[in-house]
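Bumping with the actual sequence this time:
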Amino acid sequence: MKRAIATLLIIAAALWILILPLSAHEGREIEGYTLFFGWRAEPAFVGYLNGPEIFIEIAAAAKPARPNDYRHEEEKNPLESVDVDLQIEVSFGPVTKTLPLELNFGTFDNYVATLIPTRPGDYTFRVFGMIGDVAVDEIFSSSAGEFSSVEPAADVTFPDEVPSIVELLEQIAALEARIAALEG
């Protein structure tokens, strides 16, 4: 009995580990396609290379009779023949920047952009463009809880806490103000 319970717990833990990365992405259906959106690395930390990523699937209703079984040489995954032209606009408060989404090397369904977040908090992404003949204009926000907000790097740095570039710039500005006051 104890072995059976231990085995079930190990299986449950393994399933949890496999499902956890996918749960950090928000899924949305858009006219025959499903988009899964999130950070490339979850959780996201200030000052560390990261960026948004999108996985594109053919929506369940539009999938072929043998979904995800494209292993035969004569069969191609239908997404390989779909033209995808997407961009992403990232916003943090009032600041916005547009980034190109590029096909992740060696894949046909995973698009990424490179970003190093410089402040902790919630980021909002607008994905826009075309998937085949389908227009895409969707907003994803970490504040909705489907993928992580950016966390301070101090949560993962060890043994020394490394200040962010923004924190260093603020310290420099404060020192310059003190020097100016002393000189004046």
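The tokens above came from a reply further down the thread. Residues 13-22 have pLDDT under 50 and may be disordered.
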